[in-house]
Amino acid sequence: MSSISRRTFTAQQKLQVVLESLQRDTTIEAVCRKNAITRSVVNRWRDEFFKKATELFADKRSASARAISQGFEPGQSPEELKRIIGEYATQLEIVKKAQGLLGLQ
């Protein structure tokens, strides 16, 4: 019975391997040999890197994107609630004016 221990890598080490594998003057095979890891591990780390990178650079200017990034459910962010309240206030003013014009007060 052989005891194979798995190596663990820190996030910094994984990032270093991924960035190294993205350089033009090196190959993935060379990075794998240098760090004694398989190509599938490097590919998995690269995939995770690119998936998280798109989240990092997502457009956070819109209220809904900011709210989701801060952990709010859609429709619950302070900006969205203010917008909804503003719409209801406008609708209420319209109804009041319509009632006044129709003499229903």
Low-confidence stretches: none
Quick one: overall form? Answer: rod-shaped
Rg, Cα atoms, Å: 27 Å
User: What characterizes the major β-sheet?
Assistant: none
Q: What structural class is derived from the secondary structure elements?
A: mainly alpha
Count of individual beta strands: 0
The overall pLDDT average reads 83
CATH architecture of the domain at 1-57: Orthogonal Bundle
The span between the termini is 89 Å
Number of helices: 5
The helix/strand order is HHHHH
What amount of the residues lies in strands?
A: under 5%
The CATH class assignment of the domain at 1-57 is: Mainly Alpha
What name does the CATH topology of the domain at 1-57 carry? Arc Repressor Mutant, subunit A
Proportion of helical residues: 55-70%
Descriptive report:
This protein has 105 residues and is mainly alpha-helical. It has a domain of 57 residues: Arc Repressor Mutant, subunit A (Orthogonal Bundle), CATH 1.10.10. 67% of the residues lie in helices and 0% in strands. The chain is rod-shaped, with a radius of gyration of 27 Å. The N and C termini lie far apart (89 Å).
